[in-house]
Write a structure and sequence with these properties.
- This protein is about 30% helix and about 25% strand.
- By secondary structure, the chain is an alpha+beta fold.
- The termini are far apart.
Length: about 140
């Protein structure tokens, strides 16, 4: 895969940060079409950008033969986005708290913490055959 693919309820991109703008554009169009409030759009867009970046860099190790699948759904009360990479998977419980004194100066480890501050629920699941699935939920 060398370019993004739009599918029924999402977008699939190659593992390159060059395609983050395509994801942003896709989500912005979907949010607008669904009538999502701009403040909610911003919170979710920041979260999705962080998670897709993590999927590309940490999950797929920027391997262009792997892809990141981003799925979107919205109802009258809930917006959900699912991000799936093809990496080795990881245990979210092993991520250190970035606001602990020992971690304050570390350059990595803040992404999931940031996402949790913008959305109402974050579910991270390591796939049985690799990969990581992150589902974020924002209630209206």
């Amino acid at each position: 895969m060398d370019k993004p693919q739009i599918v029924k309820d999402g977008i699939i991109i190659p593992s390159s940060t060059d395609f983050l703008a395509d994801v942003d554009k896709y989500l912005e169009e979907k949010f607008s079409d669904a009538g999502v409030d701009p403040s909610i759009m911003t919170d979710v867009a920041i979260s999705v950008s962080e998670l897709v970046n993590n999927a590309i860099i940490h999950g797929n190790k920027s391997d262009m033969t792997k892809r990141v699948d981003i799925r979107f759904s919205v109802t009258d009360t809930v917006l959900k986005v699912i991000i799936i990479d093809e990496g080795e998977g990881f245990d979210a419980d092993t991520v250190e708290n970035p606001i602990d004194d020992d971690n304050l100066l570390k350059e990595v480890g803040r992404g999931i913490f940031i996402v949790k501050s913008f959305v109402d629920d974050v579910q991270i699941t390591a796939g049985s055959e690799g990969g990581t699935r992150v589902e974020i939920t924002k209630n209206f």
